[in-house]
Every structure is written in structure tokens, then in C-alpha cells.
Amino acid sequence: MLASASCLPIVVKDFLMEEQDAMKEYRSGERISVSCSRNLQSSQAEENLWNYAFDDKANADRARNLTCLNGRWVGEYPECFERCRRSSIQGNLVAEPESEYLLPGDVVKIQICWGNIPVEGDGYLTCMANGSWYGNATCPPQSDSDCFTPLEVKNAYISGKRWNRYPEGAVGQYVHFRCDEGYILKGPHMMLCYADGTFHSEMMPKCLVVQCQPLKPPEHGWIEQSENDNGKTIHDFRSYAMVQCEEGYRVIGSVRRQCQADGTWSGEDAVCQIIRPVCEISPLVLRYGRFHSMDRMTIDHGARVSIRKMVKCDYGYTVPPNISYVSCYNGTLDPPNFDCIKYDYSIRQCHLSTTVGQVIRYRDKCYLATHGTFRSYHAKRFCQNLGPNAYLAMIPDKETNEAIGYLMNMAPGEKIYWFGAMWNSHTFRWEWPNGKGLNYTNWMNGEGSKTVKILNFNNCAVVISDVRWASTFCWRFQTYKAICEMAAN
């Protein structure tokens, strides 16, 4: 039996490429795969697929297998033909293909030649089997010089500053201009690179600096603007404007403003406001009282201040009842004098006997500081027996507390008095005899807290000589004087 003949490697034939070792002999029965080269197309391949290397998996399905049989390769060889390149057409197409390579029989139409030059003929081209284009469409030859013409536009960014011819770049393509911040483009925003290797445009673009509208000077003032090298006032982007006022006036608003990229000035409009003299008040000029602050005080022109927030009168004195505020106008106080005056504590309309205690009238109430002492319950009964709507004294505010202090200082002897505050264990708060809660208090440190009331069972209150309050037991045997109140009539 004769030995089987081996097969030699296949020589490239009609654009065929074979996957084989050129130095190897193949035994009978061995197989190899052959397909079209990268720049060729198989007649059986799908449309729009063009990259066919042997190691490409997508190409493996289009490859053909050959078998060595007794010294001959047996099998079906693929039919290959050459493809056409899109880049060999020097113009824009009506419909651009999806790939660089086109198949024989594909038809394209040139819309315009590179450099914006009209095409000669009907514009139609057909891809031939040898990889060339055929048809009635001709574009003039391109210039050998590329669009290297330097384009310099001050204060602008130029994209695509250096262009080459297609497919690398520029013939028939555009260069674009974008101005820097604070500049506005005047002219075309792009220029075309023509086939003669130059850029064409009706006018050269420019970037002009943004201008802000001149600021109107305020009344009683003027504007100082930035200047150029020639000493000329400018209102350009990033220039400054300073608002100045005449003597005796001050700037209200933005003093320094800058021209911004959008053509507006930063900040806000300014006015010149007359400077009015302020009013100064010395803490030493107040009689029968003192200011809360011992520093020299000033009140601005047009401002007013509550006297009660500014002044504390001595015991027995009060701010004038017809004055609530002090105002300043052009350096003059209104009213010019607001000294504390002696309060009228006369006991007119107070039907209380001065034999049982010291009496004063404050506002619409009469107050009695007893000479005798009582236990808390008896003090309450004593005050109620003075007349209708009579109680242990209620102290609703600071001024009443000070009036009570004045009354206590008038009376001789020890300065500890029962008054109307009492702890209510049901409502869990301090209350007055009329059942209302305390809105004003003047407790000593640690006195009057709810915790103390719970733990110590203190449920009555006394006022001592410095008109501070203290809590104490109601039902023990302490005896103190009492402060009673009743309506004046």
C-alpha cells in the first residue's frame, strides 16, 4: 500500500490569504482555513462588515476550510474582490457611509467638493470590483499646501488652529473662535479652510472688550473711574469706579464697583447722605437716677430710645409720665431734659388709716405697710378686712416693686413683709391672690424654684429691705409685717 502524499503550503492566489506555516508540509487529512485579506471582501460576507483579519472571530464564519488529500488541497475557495475607500473622494457626500470601505456596486453622490467648490458632473460615483470609483463626478485637484496660515485673534481661543487635508483634517473643515471672559466676538465665529490651503471669510473676527454703561454720579458726589495709559477714562471689563461724596456727606451703598463680564457693575447704587451730628449724653447729668450704662452714650440723628430702657430712677422717683422716648435731631435731644422726678405718693383717694401703718398711692392702687406683725394666715385676713378688693400686695412689674421698696423705707423697724405670692400645689406654680400666675419676679438666688417648693414645702413669700423676694413656711410661727393693697377711689 502506497503512503499518502503530503500537501505543500498554498501560495497567495487572487488576493487569498491562508492560515498556514509556509515552511511546513501538511499530511493527508490535515485542514487549514483561508479567507480574504483585510482590504478585500468575500462575496459571501454580510454587508457593512469590512475588517477581516484571520485572527478576527467575526471573520472565522466567512473563512473556508481546505483539506489535504493525497497531496492536493480539497475544498471550496472563497471568492474575493477589492473594496473602495471613502477617503479617496475629495468632497462631502449626500449620505455619508458608516465605514471607510465600500463594496463593489455601492453608489455615492458628491454634494460639494472640498474647499466649498462645486462638483463637475452629476456627482454620482460607483464602486468597481478593482477598488476604483467610476462615474460622472470630478473634484478639482487639491493644493499641496495645507492650511497652516497662522490665525491670531487677540483675547480669543482658536480651536483647530493647525489643519491638514482630509482625512487628517482641514480642507473643507472649519476653525472656530471663542473670546476670553469679558470680551465679545465681532465677526464670524468660524472660518473655512479652502482647497487652496488658505482660510476664507468676509471679515476677520475680533474680540472686543465688554463695556459697562458709565455710572451716574450721585447728588452731592462724583465718580472716580479707571484710566488707560493715555489718561482717558475707561469703563472696560474689570475696570473700577469709586464713589466719592462732598464734605459733610457719606456714601450709602457700594463705594467700590467693578465692571463685570456681563456688562453690569458689581455692588449696588450708592447715594451721598448728609452727615448729621449725633447726640451725646453724659451719665453724670441725670438727677435722681442713673443710666444703665455708665459710659458716655450717643444717639444717632433720627433715632429714638425708650427712656425706661435707658434710665433707672432712685426710690421714690420716676421718669416723667409724659415722656416715653428721647429722640435726636441734628445733635439736639428731644426732650432736652428727662431727669427723674419725685413720684406723687400722696394718699389722696386712699381710705386707709395711717395709724395701723404707712400708706402710699401708686398708680391706681393704695399700699399699706403695717406697723404690727402677723403670722401668714392672719396677715391675709387683716388685708382682706381693709375693704372690698383688698389683698396681700401683688407686685406685677419692676416699677411696682420699687414703689413697695420706697414704702418699706418709709416705715420704721425690721424690713421683712408678707406679700401676696403663694405656692399652689395643685397648679404647681406661684400665684397671686386673684389666681393669676407671676409674670414678674425678683427672687433671691435659689428662691422660688419649683424643686425647693416640693422638697421644703415653702409656700409663702416675703419681701425684704432690698425688695428681693424670699420663700418661707406659711404655717409655722414666724411673724412678719404685711404689705396690703386696695383700689384707690
From TrEMBL:
Disulfide bonds join C245-C272. It holds the Pfam family Sushi. Keywords: Disulfide bond, Glycoprotein, Repeat, Signal, Sushi. CDD domains: CCP, CLECT. It comes from the Eukaryota. Residues 362-474 form the C-type lectin domain. Residues 145-209, 210-274 form the Sushi domain. Gene3D superfamilies: Complement Module, domain 1 (2.10.70.10), Mannose-Binding Protein A, subunit A (3.10.100.10). This is Uncharacterized protein.
